[in-house]
């Protein structure tokens, strides 16, 4: 079975994450398909991609440019309180605590933004060694 066969056969049940009413899931699109989607007629604002003089697609993300390593928040609870390396006055790091309530509010916001839409999903891996790699699902749109 090829990767394409596996992707066609695999189902993604996003309702278990609170994402509902998804109209379509485009799974592991090719670069060509993404290029066509990002530059198609009728897109406006932050959805619209612009082809650069070198042929790449640039998308205006407004004030949100990139993901900062300093934007790392972890729910501080009974499990993580003694097992995380939290920042303090003596030792500084990027592990910032957040409350369960803040996490719940954030999850509600995100699942609302992803519901009732067409989504692009890429099956990706963190790490180069397939035995040790972690799988994750990334939503592009």
TrEMBL record:
Superkingdom: Bacteria
Q: What class of enzyme is it?
A: lyase
InterPro entries recorded for this chain?
Answer: PEP_carboxykinase_ATP, PEP_carboxykinase_N
Give the CC-aspect GO terms. cytosol
Task: Please indicate if the UniProt record lists RNA-binding as a keyword.
Answer: no
Query: GO MF annotations for this entry?
Result: ATP binding; kinase activity; phosphoenolpyruvate carboxykinase (ATP) activity
Q: Which GO terms describe its biological process?
A: gluconeogenesis
Q: Which Pfam families match?
A: PEPCK_ATP
Q: What keywords is this UniProt entry annotated with? A: Decarboxylase, Gluconeogenesis, Kinase, Lyase, Pyruvate, Transferase
Question: What SUPFAM superfamilies does its record include?
Answer: PEP carboxykinase N-terminal domain
Is Nuclease found in the keyword set?
no
Report the EC code(s) recorded for this entry.
Answer: 4.1.1.49
Instruction: Tell me the protein's name.
Output: Phosphoenolpyruvate carboxykinase
């Amino acid at each position: 079975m090829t990767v394409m066969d596996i992707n066609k056969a695999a189902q993604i049940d996003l309702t278990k994450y609170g994402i509902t009413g998804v109209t379509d899931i485009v799974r592991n699109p090719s670069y060509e398909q993404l290029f066509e989607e990002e530059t198609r007629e009728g897109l406006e604002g932050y959805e619209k991609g612009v082809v650069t003089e070198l042929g790449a697609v640039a998308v205006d993300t407004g004030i949100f440019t990139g993901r900062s390593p300093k934007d790392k928040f972890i729910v501080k609870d009974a499990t993580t309180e003694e097992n995380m390396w939290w920042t303090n006055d003596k030792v500084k790091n990027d592990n910032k605590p957040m409350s369960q309530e803040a996490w719940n509010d954030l999850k509600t916001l995100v699942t609302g933004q992803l519901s009732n839409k067409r989504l692009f999903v890429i099956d990706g891996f963190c790490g180069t060694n397939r035995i040790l790699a972690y799988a994750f699902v990334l939503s592009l749109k």
